[in-house]
Amino acid sequence: MTDTRGPQPQYEGYATGPLPGEREPSQGQAGPYHPPQAYAAPAGGTQGGGGTMGGAQATRRPRTGARTTPRTRKARLRVAKADPWSVMKVSFLLSIALGICTVVAAAVLWMVMDAMGVFSTVGGTISEATGSNESNGFDLQSFLSLPRVLVFTSVIAVIDVVLATALATLGSFIYNLSAGFVGGVELTLAEDE
Fold it and tell me: Residues near 100 by Cβ (< 8 Å), separated by ≥ 6?
């Protein structure tokens, strides 16, 4: 190929001189390499007095008063939309856990009250008040037996699971509608470094 651009100007020291990595250090140069500065240092040194006298290169001094405490990053976020499917799954699992806790709490409460003699005392009072010469009256202990209490509590827990799941899912739909108008709930999250 032939060069059709014509004669090109030669830059002195660029085309004929060695590349920066090929240069040999001069005899008078000692210490680390300092790149050339865009502006020469003032005659009296830098403002902080970091330079030497006579316009030599300025050395950088560390900043005083640097922050030693960790900085906390904060981000302000907005909950723009709640996914109804994920809200339904989470509320279903939480309401099942709440239902199990309700059944266990009812069983423990019944056992404690039975050990204290509450049912026998109250049942005796009620049977005396409702009894007559022909009948013994209302038997509270047989009515509030442990299996009957657990069945009743289980029915309440199942109703609670269905209602809590439905209400939470409906609440997510309502939140999405209202967030479209007003922008949603704003949260400020902080992260410690």
Answer: 157
Instruction: Return the bridge partners of 58, or none.
Output: 51
Helix (H) or strand (E) holding 190: strand 185-192
Structure tokens at 181: 């108008």
- Please report the pLDDT score of residue 35 as a whole number: 75
Residue pLDDT, tens place only, 151-187: 999 999 999 999 999 999 999 999 999 998 888 888 8
Q: Per DSSP, what are the bridge partners of residue 150?
A: none
Burial category of 51 from C-beta neighbours within 10 Å (exposed 0-12, middle 13-18, buried 19 and up): buried
The H or E element that residue 152 is part of is helix 146-182
Query: Rounded to a whole number, what is the largest CA-CA distance in the chain?
Result: 135
**Exposed, middle or buried: residue 161 (CB in 10 Å: 0-12, 13-18, 19+)?**
buried
